[in-house]
Amino acid sequence: MKRIILLAAITVFGVATSNAQTAKKTAKKADTPAKVETPKVDGAGMLFENETIDYGTIPHNSDGKREFVFVNNGNKPLTIESTQGSCGCTVPSKPEGSIAPGAKGVIGVKYATDRVGPFTKTVTIKSNAAGQETKVVTIKGTVLPDAPADGATPTKS
Question: Averaged in consecutive runs of 10 residues, what is the pLDDT profile of the chain (157 residues)?
């Protein structure tokens, strides 16, 4: 009877130990970050780091300049033909010249932060990118009103 109990205890201990070692190996594999490969395109390509820029909550008349960064993931030079904001308060700028395969490019955008309140605007980009000759990216956020100069809350008259 003692031998059976001893044999059962050794078996349970052995199984528990081997499972713990397997779990450690699995955890180590999961901790290694996966290498992200940029998908390649035949022709010119345009792959953005972010297609939406969130300004968050910003003060009135603060700096409204931001940048959309992209990479030419194709095998031919990328040319940005034009950039167009969805309204006059959103002014984009395009890179001059061509972006070589594998090179990064930047499309600047300036939002007029003199307009108070939430906003969501788009920038339309026209290029020679294969399969996406027209690309739309977005900016969004909220512009806070100016605080009263004396620190008091305004009263209605």
Answer: 70 64 52 58 92 96 95 95 94 94 96 95 96 93 82 53
Domains located in the chain, CATH noted: 47-143 (2.60.40.10)
Which tokens is 132 given? 């996406």
Q: How many of the other CB atoms lie within 10 Å of CB of 95?
A: 17
| 3-class SS of residue 6 | helix
pTM tops 0.85: no
Phi-psi category of residue 100: left, alpha or beta, with phi > 0 → left and psi -120 to 50 → alpha = beta
Neighbours of 98 (CB within 10 A): 16
Identify residue 119 by its one-letter amino acid code.
F
Contact status, residue 58 vs residue 143, Cβ threshold 8 Å: yes
> What are the Cα distances from residue 132, in Å, to 53, 60, 61, 67, 113?
20, 35, 35, 20, 30
Q: CB count, 10 Å around CB of 58?
A: 15
pLDDT value of position 9: 66
CA distance 78 to 62: 33
What 3-state DSSP class applies to 33? coil
Question: Which value, to the nearest 10 degrees, does the dihedral of the CA atoms of residues 36, 82, 78, 120 take?
Answer: 0
